[in-house]
Design goal:
The structure is a homodimer. Chain A has 12 helices and 14 strands. In chain A, the strands form 2 sheets. Chain A has a 9-stranded mixed beta sheet with strand order 6-5-1-9-10-11-12-13-14, with helices on both faces. In chain A, strands 3-8-7-2-4 form a 5-stranded mixed beta sheet. The two termini of chain A are 25 Å apart.
Chain lengths: 330, 330
């Protein structure tokens, strides 16, 4: 166990089930392309039955970010809930195998480990359908003050606002992080997630968040404005550091009075966008942990995002620190 | 359910857990590189704990072949045993999603669904460690005569000789296939598997097998000879049709008095050899189902093998019939 964590993440503990499909299937199933929607057990069963063969890879937004940080060699920890079932064992194995401190005790009873049915279309876009299962039982008792106290950054995913007890855990972790001198980072996760929790997110961003990660659709949805530029103007006054990603158009970093733009890293073949935002956040926060200038942090984020969209699944397939060395970023 | 099956496969029903590693890890774990070894539950737990993050993909040798046949559009069925647990559900979903008839009822109790811990080294070689679990409870009662009667080819994996009840199921299926005018195909599976069951395999090949699939190491091991050429001379007298694969050197087809050689299909990047032999058999038997000349069958096999070694996992990622059309093979 590390003395201090560069980043401690809290999020839904999910195993992804990825399957290639086409747009016609998304339409037939009435799915919102490129978004994340929550589904119940019956819907999960029906959709799984209708979709093609899958591959199972550990996922979860904040968990992917923490896996990415571990791949950079950062000291990291994760809090999230699985059940003690086969998929829970998979999730647990995959994250501790990276050297992440993950000690949340698995639930012995109740709903199974969360899974996300991810449909990947030929354009590389992913459409996510999440059955939260055991993950939604994460609560404030699962957040340990002594562990939070050791984190330089506590990273929280917006998706935690969907299950009520997890939201309580979220607020507790944010409060404890500040009490112990840590920073609070938040990703807005998904524009529909922002729709569901807009008012609370606005207060949170304004009052609690030190580092905000969002993509263009999410930040526009947060402030209900017409353009990215207007959203930038709003978030500047709300949050000391905002990291806004715009897919192939790169990222905009707003810090105090300054703004900088960093281009996306070119990829040979876009295979699956699952985890692009999660890995951007990983690279960025790794840069922060190394006290790199913000533009360098964004370049590390762009590199990690480029790695993950080049293959199926949201966890890096190569050592990100080795890739960063190859790219001359560290 | 199809009226007749081009191929019905019987094999171990396994979910693969694939993880990238290096040769040092194989040595530290005392593993026979590129082979398959059987492991018990304790060893599976220990090895899983020691290995890196994984991805889960349905596997099983004959099951991979049947999945490949379905991807070619052949009418196919599979018999193999899982438990009614999460990994069993994954296996079941992935094979029926391809249109395969798979109706073996999952065990409600007993050991969990089989898994194979597959370590993939940077050279693309796979080293497999199989915990058979529920799969080894497959027995003769799971082989239904009316279903076997509808199969033009009954395809059996040599790995079925490891669990005793599965071996009985194997013999029953072979006997019934011949009773109903079908052909019996066998893959020798693995040279260590041949070591374990050499005498029985020799009798089987000589007395029961109409189509034999083997790689160079397996056929040499079967006859305990010094060279591939000697093995070819032996198998010619034993079996009406032998399909012998030699990795990058292509395949040799021995049928009656004739021998033909077909080169391997070049691959851009060898990622993971898992399933190469299984998919070669799929393409070859698809060709047989279409009454193609044997050399064309081997070309279809080489194409399917090339697809599967270009990515992680032993199931095709693209439609093999579409790929065959692109390659001008159908």
């Amino acid at each position: 166990m590390a003395e201090t964590y560069d980043v401690l993440g809290i999020g839904n503990a999910i195993v992804d089930v990825l399957s290639r499909t086409d747009d016609a299937f998304l339409e037939a199933q009435k799915l919102n392309k490129s978004s994340m929607q929550l589904i119940d057990a019956d819907r999960a069963e029906a959709l799984y039955g209708a979709m093609g063969p899958g591959i199972e890879i550990s996922g979860g937004s904040a968990a992917n970010t923490i896996a990415g940080l571990a791949s950079f060699g950062a000291a990291s920890a994760f809090i999230g809930m699985v059940k003690a079932d086969q998929l829970g064992r998979v999730f647990h194995h995959d994250i501790i195998a990276l050297g992440v401190d993950y000690t949340t005790p698995a639930r012995a009873d109740g709903e199974p480990t969360a899974r996300c049915l991810i449909l990947v279309t030929p354009d590389g876009e992913r459409t996510m359908n999440t059955f939260l299962g055991a993950s939604q039982t994460l609560g404030p008792d699962d957040v340990d003050e002594s562990q939070i106290a050791r984190a330089n950054i506590v990273y929280l995913e917006g998706y935690l606002f969907d299950p009520a007890p997890a939201k309580e855990a979220f607020y507790k972790a944010a409060r404890l992080a500040h009490k112990h001198g840590g920073r609070v980072a938040l990703t807005l996760s998904d524009s529909f997630c922002v729709d569901r929790h807009r008012e609370e997110f606005r207060v949170l961003v304004s009052d609690e968040v030190d580092i905000l990660f969002a993509n263009e659709a999410e930040i526009i949805s947060l402030y209900e404005v017409a353009s990215f530029e207007e959203a930038c103007a709003k978030v500047r006054t709300d949050c000391p550091l905002a990291v806004l990603t715009r897919s192939a158009e790169g990222a905009v970093i707003l810090s105090g009075g300054t703004a900088s733009e960093v281009p996306a890293k070119k990829v040979d073949a876009l295979v699956d966008t699952t985890g692009a935002g999660d890995l951007f956040a990983a690279g960025f926060m790794f840069g922060l942990s190394q006290d790199r200038p913000l533009e360098d942090c964004a370049r590390l984020g762009a590199m990690a995002a480029a790695e993950v969209i080049g293959h199926m699944g949201a966890r890096p397939e190569v050592s990100l620190i080795e890739q960063a060395k190859k790219d001359g970023l560290v």
